[in-house]
Amino acid sequence: MFPAPPALGTQVDRMGRPAINTALTGTFDPTCTKATCPAKDAYNANSSQASWVGDYQKNMEAYLGIYDGLDDTCGNQPGFTAATGYATLAGVLANDVLWLNTASATCQQYLSVELAALGVPNTDCGGRTLTENTLDLTYNILAGTLTPATLPATSGPAVNGSTAATKAPSTTFPYLAAPQ
Question: Do the domain assignments include residue 47?
Fold first, then answer.
């Protein structure tokens, strides 16, 4: 006989796509401190998938405009058009779910399903592996420096040479790598 599963407590984090909340929610909010940020905490605690886009899209659109200027070229983020501005990308990112294309047998590109929805052609299944450099890829998308021409064959290595893992994960659960 197995014991009953533990009762779940209050949801404190959502991690479908790392860095989205960090980059696009309350980033310049003066009420945020090192210990807490009401906007980020609310985003993490929101468990209603049906309301994510409505609750966060407009706020994320404003922050996307800031990131878009980092490479001195505004309007080059995936999904940006003069007619819709940042709404399409904000709508895709506000729905904090990691999408998978189960029809694809190639799974080497983090956010590939999301990028395909934004007009970046690819046939990868999406999702992410333990060696994905999710932070580097996410910030390159936000800054508009990741285009179909620069989309790496696999997102394991750093796109712009920054934060790739240096040690492989173990092949058994919980798949932890040795400390860096």
Answer: yes
